Amino acid sequence: MKHKCDIYGGRWVRDFNQPSYEESDCPYMDQQLTCLRHGRPDKDYRYWRWQPNACSIPSFNATMMLEELRGKRMIMVGDSLLRGQFTSLVCLLHQAIPQHAQSLEVIHSLSIFTAKDYNATIEYYWTPFLVESNADDPKMHKVDFRIIRNESIDKHGQYWKGADIILFNTYIWWVEGINVLLKGSFDDEKRETVKLSMEDGYRLALKKLIEWINENIDSNKTRLFFAGLSVTHQRSFKWGGDRKGNCYNETTMIEDPSYVGASPSLYPIINEELSKSEVPVTFLNITQLTSQRKDAHTSIYKAFRRPLTPQQRANPIPYADCIHWCLPGVQDVWNHLFFVKLFFSI
What we know:
Elements: E1 10-14, E2 48-52, H1 62-68, E3 73-78, H2 80-94, E4 102-107, E5 110-115, E6 120-126, E7 147-149, H3 154-157, E8 165-168, E9 178-183, E10 192-196, H4 198-216, E11 223-227, H5 266-274, E12 281-284, H6 287-291, E13 297-299, H7 310-314, E14 321-325, H8 330-343
């Protein structure tokens, strides 16, 4: 019996044929991801590709993907890291479509990219916890006291029904734990909540997701994917760097292949809960390939809601975004592996 290749176990290989698009050429680029436009002085982070240890994988082919999506609807559901992957995918595909035959429409939490000649849509839906929360407004979601509503996923799920391909993710918003609404509303001063750990809250959300899948998804029509944990680089002492540093001014990868930087306690929960789905869920394990890439975050080279002052720029480390990724960059590789899992039995 031929064993499938582990495409997630591999290494970064220098490749000066990357990137396959420029941030200035993609009209759908998120301003929070355009590092060169916002003054990043180095470009080295762009010239890498992912090479699995035990096999070679097909190159990303935009025309092939569009043909496979002909007449179909794909939706990505999750937080801003998944929105970055959506932006990456749209930028990878738009080059293969005549300008007059493509469009992007944003309707509150839902973004819809349409490839008109293919009668295909690729969508993104903002919901950082998957279940209903007080952070569900795509523009006004900065909340100090994060609350989820335990029983409610249908409010969001109504927008996912009928899709041919769904990719879910949720992770970074759970790291500090979560408050669950027991009584009242999100805005009610007399509401009752209970605090759950990251692990317990995460399990609760995945249970609700799987219940929704089992009630609403037809395995003959819809393929499901779940993206794993994208590594952050907010504490450089964790990889042997300065105790007060983070990803700011990092231009090389972490050399230690054993560095993880995500929350390993969530992996058993993901495995256990996804296994309860009556519709197969393909897991996209992006943790190892993001672990080493402390060089590829947006850092201070992004659009801020309020531009950094001269004083803040003189001490930029506290303002560096070590969660999100520059585009083009690491998230193009996520889409390459997504493409492989979508269309090849590797």
